[in-house]
Amino acid sequence: MSEIWHMDNFDLYSILCPSKIKDYFKTNGLSFKKGDVIYFPEDDEQKIYLVSKGKVKLCNYNQDGEEVVKLILSKGEIFGEKTLLGQAKREEYAIAEGDVTYLCLLSIDKMRNLMRDNEQFGLFIYKLIGLRVKKIERRLEILVCKDAEERLLEFIKDLFDDNFNENETIKHPYSQNDIAKLIGTSRETVSKQMSKYKKQGWIDYTRTSITLKNKKALISAMD
């Protein structure tokens, strides 16, 4: 599943939100404060968004009114992309998660023109959509079937490609609060478990990276 984060052929930020073009953001951008809703379920606005600054969470609410976070996106990531597949209505809430969040807008027609003019870019976008759908489906399944510790272990494992060795380090944009929202638990639980894994010599981590030091032990804990 982590294959989606390692497709380095294209820099979406430079393509879709070109900062070198004078006044691009003034005519193609929006700004939001933390907690602002970018769009609601059933909205039919046909736009694709790219995060220029801050974070955006995609979420729904269950019958008990509890928030279920699907994804948390940071700079350079797109959302609302299912409109390219003919989806007429939004399926989730998109909410600004950073203190200040800037988004670049792209019309469906413009995106389709870019994809038509560059076949590799088009394949990249469709692959990204497919892998993201699978990632969300798997995350929701894990939320239902596993307890909090198992969900955290699964989250860590999903950050790494199967080909990485035990000393590989991966960069990530997630705070402990972000991780807690994604796996449906508290920040305190995430902090406690991450500290435990570090003491056990399974991982090392900072605010922006995780190093997997004992992959075998981590996977064994998931069995």
Helix vs. strand class:
alpha+beta
Radius of gyration: 18 Å
Distance between the termini: 19 Å
By DSSP (H or I, 4+ residues per run), the number of helices equals: 8
Report the CATH topology name of the largest domain: Jelly Rolls
Q: What is the strand tally?
A: 11
- Portion of residues within helices: 25-40%
Let me know the largest β-sheet: 4 strands, antiparallel
Point out poorly predicted stretches.
Answer: 1-8
How much is the average pLDDT? 84
Overall 3D geometry?
Answer: globular
Strand content: 15-25%
**Name of the CATH class of the largest domain:** Mainly Beta
Order of SSEs: HHEEEEEEEEHHHEHHEEH
Write the layout of secondary structure elements.
Elements: H1 12-16, H2 24-28, E1 29-33, E2 37-39, E3 47-53, E4 56-61, E5 67-73, E6 78-79, E7 93-96, E8 100-107, H3 108-117, H4 119-145, H5 148-158, E9 169-171, H6 176-183, H7 187-199, E10 203-205, E11 209-212, H8 215-222
Antiparallel strand pairs: 1-8, 2-7, 3-6, 3-8, 4-5, 4-7, 9-11, 10-11
Helix pairs in contact: 3-4, 5-8, 6-7
